[in-house]
Design brief:
The chain is mostly helical. About 70% of the residues lie in helices and about 0% in strands. Helix 2 packs antiparallel against helix 3 and helix 2 packs across helix 4.
Length: about 110
């Protein structure tokens, strides 16, 4: 079940931030994560890069304060695995043959 949580709701729960660049970074990270559905780490990295915020952990701590933990876990469990295709013996052999053919083709072109 997807939890509906918007950036505006998160901004209401956000404590007062004195540093203006940190506030802008948190605002951007919330927008990227909640509205644009970026991954948590990528949203933090992009916000820190754009607003030159060091350390990035400051943004992460504030985000973890305002975003419900259930939402973070729900989004993490919905992520697709990196390699969904099982590696079979036939696939491995085909891959080795393709590498050998590419190497032979490169050597052939170089010898001309």
């Amino acid at each position: 079940m997807a939890i509906l949580f918007t950036k505006e709701e998160a901004m209401k729960d956000l404590p007062f931030i004195e540093d203006k660049t940190l506030y802008k970074g948190v605002d951007l990270a919330l927008w990227l994560y909640l509205d644009k559905h970026w991954s948590f780490k990528n949203a933090i990295n992009k916000a820190a890069e754009k607003h030159s915020i060091k350390p990035k952990i400051a943004i992460e701590r504030l985000l973890r304060q305002v975003i419900p933990e259930e939402l973070i876990w729900d989004r993490m469990s919905g992520a697709k695995p990196r390699n969904t295709q099982p590696a079979s013996k036939e696939t491995a052999i085909r891959s080795q043959k393709m590498k050998k053919m590419e190497k032979d083709a490169k050597n052939h072109v170089c010898s001309i």
